[in-house]
Every structure is written in C-alpha cells, then in structure tokens.
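May I ask for a single protein's sequence together with how it folds?
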Amino acid sequence: MSIFNSLTAEQFDSIGRELDAIRNREIADLGEKDAKYIRTLIKRQRQLEVAGRGLLMAGFLPPAWLAGVACLSASKIIDNMEIGHNVMHGQYDWMGDPAINSQTFDWDNTCTSKAWKHTHNYEHHTFTNVLDKDHDIGYGILRMSEDQEWEPRFLLNPILAGVLATFFQHFVAVQSLKLEDYLIYKTKTKEEVKAEFKPTWKKMRKQLFKDYLLFPALAGPFFPFVFAGNVTANLARNLWSSQVIYNGHFPEEVEQFPESVIENETRGQWYVRQMLGSANFEGGPLMHLMSGNLSFQIEHHLFPDLPAHRYAKISPEVRAICEKYGLPYNTGPFFKQSFSVWKRIFKLALPGKRKGGGKGTLATVLNKKPAPTGEQVPISRKAA
C-alpha cells in the first residue's frame, strides 16, 4: 500500500508549508548569479555548436570528425536539457529578458514550444503520474503501468521503448497529437490529426532542412561527413535525453496514481504525489549539467519554475523532509536507475498485474470520485 494513504491531513499540510518555505526562500534569493549562470551557459552552448559544425566541415580527418560530433552532441544536449527545457518552464522569466522568456523562447528541436508547454508544463507537471491524465506515462505507445490494460501490442514494449529513445525528439514533437487515438482507438479522425500536425510539421521541416541539407550542403564535397555527423549528434541527444527522462519517471519504485487522487487535491498532497512519482540519479557536476539537472527530478517536480541549477543545493532539505514523514526519496546511480527502468519495460510487456498495488488499491482506499477533466491552473504555479 502506498505511503500516501498513511499520511494525515495535518501531515500533508505540514509538508506543504515546509516545501513552500524552501520555494519562497529560493525565489526571493534569485538574482545576478542566476542571470550570469544562464547567460554564460547559452554562450558556451553556442561556442560548442560553432566549434562542432566547423570541425565537421573537416570531417575527412577522423580526429576532426569525432571532435565535431562530440562538440555538436554536447551543444544539442545542453540546449535541449539545461537551456530549452528549463527556460520554457519559466525559470528565468523574472529576468525580463525576451531572449530567455518562456513565452517567446524556442529551442533546437522538432517539437514546437507551444505544443511542448501544453503536454509537458501543463499536463505532465499538473497530473504527474496520474494514469489517463499524464500522457508521459508511456507516451501513448508503451505500457508503463501494471494498471494499464494489457494489449498484444505491448509484447513489443522493449522494442518500442528503443524506437522511442532513438527518435525521441520526433516522438515528443507529435506527442500532443495523441496519435494512438487515431491509429489504435479510432476516437480521432484523420482530418483532425492533419490539422493539428501542421504547426509541428512546419517546425520539423525547418529542423530537418537545417541539419540534413543546409549545413551538409555548405560543406560541398564533404557533404557526407557533415550529414553523418549531424545524424550522430542528434542520435546522441535523443538517446541521452530519453534515458534521463526514463530514469526520472519509470524506475520500479516510482508510484503511479488514479484520477481520484486529484479531486480537491491540496498543495501538500500535490507535493507528496510529486515526490512519490519521481526519481533522482546521482552524479557529479557534469552529469547534472548534461541532464539539465533532471538528475534531481524529485526537486524539479516539486519546483518546476525554480532555476534548475539550484536543485543540488536544496536536495538535502527535500530528502530530510522525506525522512521526517517516512516518505521514500528514490535515488541511486545512473546505471542502477536505468536497469530498474528497463526491467520494468520488459516486465510490463507481458500481461498481468502486480498484487497489492496500483490504481485499484489506491482508488479503493481513497474512495474518491474521478476528477473533472476541464483545464485548471497547475498547482505548481499557484502562489505559495
């Protein structure tokens, strides 16, 4: 049974107050050091991109090609994870700089910022790990919950997870379309899909043209080297970012919830759901940077609009709160969390439901009605 069920209303309220205090303190402390951090990082990311693309032009020399791929891969990962993801969460809106404002920023990715902010900022961060509300549970193609009804297609769970990782930026780009509603469940028409896909395809065309035609063409006779380098850099970015996301959401100990838990959910209950529905992984400063500090996924789910480079500082306090109230603080080495994720992927490829857990048990204990489906303000954005 989930520890969620053993907490009293008073404990939920106390947890909410303690976490609000951390958030309010950090928000009040935002200033020049945070602005310098993000501006310096953007400068370094651009330098890596210029170096990477330049070195790929000399790709007929193996050392230059390898260095170019490394620089371009690092550039794309940093742009995706520590800059794009965090800026579009509004972590730097307080600076008043339109270049790094969540309303105007766009990233080097095939996903439009508008679509991503709806499926990620709103749906995922409001309904974290709520089955049938959080589309990040399986992205519409994977079975990632024992409470998700098994279908024969889920026998391909491991293969589909690999395909999703390989083409991660493209799957994220079309995530808002919820293609399973058209391809599998037949609840969406072809015309609806085409209309919704237009802005995504416009962004995709731009990115595909830049990486696979424009820059390779600029290399003239070295077109194949630049083309191959761009393919490799995008693959590296996709595989790395997907595993970071997997590790933060899908280890076996991470909990999932029924819709009933979000009805009349208090701030303290929302905070606890974030902690139970997330996982961290350990590493040094470079690991944290290259993961966009999503190595602190628990802290990110608690405070999604707080600059992510601050998560390392507050993580001991969050962990202490978990220990105080008997809540698990799910963390471990990167490869340990990765093994747990893939174990879950293989396990859920087969039919069956684990006894003593999951949606049915939690829903029965809480005995609540399903939550309304209308739009609402994410609790993470409400004033503390």
About this structure: Confidence is low (pLDDT under 50) at residues 355-384.
